[in-house]
Amino acid sequence: MRTLLVAAASLSLIASGAPAFAAPCKDTKGRFTKCPPKAPAKPARCKSANGKFAKCGTAGAKPV
Asked: Would I find Signal among this entry's keywords (predicted)?
């Protein structure tokens, strides 16, 4: 009985979770749309030992 209950619960979770993976983006009316492209990653900024911004490759420069 217990295994039957566990099997039914897992089957219902699998069946209900499938549409959630389809398209996570919706418009204002609630319809599924194509998701906008992700923003590009910001370039790393580094500071020198005296606290001023410097190129990230120079001696003593550390990422902020």
From this structure: yes
